[in-house]
Structures are given as C-alpha cells and as structure tokens.
Design a protein that fits this description.
The protein is 41% helix and 17% strand. By secondary structure, it is an alpha/beta fold. Strands 1-2-3-4-5-6-7-8 form an 8-stranded parallel β-barrel, surrounded by 6 helices. It has a single domain, classed as Aldolase class I (TIM Barrel), CATH 3.20.20. The protein binds ligand LCLJCK34, 4-methyl-5-hydroxyethylthiazole phosphate and magnesium ion. The ligand Cc1ncc(COP(=O)(O)OP(=O)(O)O)c(N)n1 binds next to β5.
Amino acid sequence: MSRLAPFYPIVDSADWVRRLVPVGVKLVQLRIKRRTPDEVRREVRAALAICRPRRVQLVINDHWRIALDEGAGFIHLGQEDLAGADLRAIRARHVKLGISTHDDAELDHALGVSPDYVALGPIYPTSLKAMPWAPQGLDRIGEWKRRIGRLPLVTIGGITLERAAGCLAAGADCVAVVSDVTGHPTPLVRAASWITSTRTPPRGLPHE
Ligand SMILES: Cc1ncc(COP(=O)(O)OP(=O)(O)O)c(N)n1
Ligand SMILES: Cc1ncsc1CCOP(=O)(O)O
Ligand SMILES: [Mg+2]
C-alpha cells in the first residue's frame, strides 16, 4: 500500500498545477467540469507534462477515458462515475484509483473494487457543490479508518488549514482541499503553509 502526500490540492486547470508544483506539492487532482472533451484532454496533457518529470502524482477526476489515453497514473471516481467506468481497462493499465464515499453502503461498494485510497466527505459544510450528505464530522474519520485499515484515507469538504490537523489526528492520511487554497487571496503562500503544517516529522525525531 503506497503512502499519499498528506496535502492534496484539487484544481481546475493545468495552469494551477504549473503554479503549485514549484511550491512543493507532491499530489494534486485535476477536477474539470463543464469543458469540452478536447479542452479536457489539452489540460490533462499539459498537467501530465508538468508532473511526470517532477514525480508529482497527478490524479484525474471523472475523465477516466482521457486519463487512460493520455497515460495518467491515477484516477479519482465518485460512485456514479464508477458505475460507468471500465475498471478492467483501468486495472489493466495499472492505473491507481481513488473512490469517493459518503456512507456505509458506498464504503462497502468502494472496498469491493480494491481502490488505492478511499475519500470521505464532506467532513465540514462545503460551498463548492450541493451535496445531500450532512457533514460527517471528525468521529466519522476514525470510524472510516478503523474499517479500512492500512488503505489510505483522504478527507475532503470544507477543510481549511486550521481544520486539517484535526482531520489528520482523527485518522486521515491525507487532506484534500479546493477553496481554502484556490479561493485564498495568496494561494501559493497558503499552499506552502499547508505543506509545512501537514508534514509528518522524520522517523526517530520527536514531535515538538
Ligand atoms: C479526493 C476527492 N474526494 C472526493 C471527490 C468527489 O468526487 P465525486 O463524488 O465524483 O464528485 P466530483 O468531484 O466529480 O464533483 C473528489 N473529486 N476528490
Ligand atoms: C468535490 C467534493 N466532494 C466532497 S466535498 C467536495 C468539495 C471540496 O471543496 P472545498 O475544499 O472547497 O470544500
Ligand atoms: Mg466525479
């Protein structure tokens, strides 16, 4: 089971990837909505060209066919996306897969396809998208982690820099975020602060 970087920004363009990677981001998701397939493909291609030589993990949300065509190594799918996806083709290319979960039934379903991480959300209220689920809260993170064991747990939804430590302490391995970075007046400074404050101390060194 490979580890994930604890800070996981989600952005909607290759230009954001180009800006964030020099700050030290090691894991980033391209989440593009309402664009033509050609536009998505161009963005995926450009983001991969930035990430590949720098060994940054790029996760493509939703657009699994384009991701496979372009040679991406990681895909994120929600439960509805999963229903229409060719999991065999994804697995045949050894592409990693992250899956969204919001309740017990979705977690059972996700675990049934052996994902590379499970995402739980929304932890807090989010204004990014309307969702039928109430905020999960921190206790739910611990419950999910006990159920999934060594499989990496990503938390998402309304998470700010100030809230991230609570998610990690509750059992998350990784914190995904949109607005607190891309909506911040100084997003690159904010991303740098996220990297510093989510960094785990090297083995053998005590926490301060
Ligand atoms: C890390 C992570 N977790 C959850 C989601 C949400 O995926 P999904 O439920 O498919 O919703 P959309 O993002 O496609 O609107 C995610 N993208 N990333
Ligand atoms: C896509 C998605 N899935 C669950 S919550 C969420 C939105 C996360 O955005 P933000 O970090 O701005 O709350
Ligand atoms: Mg989706």
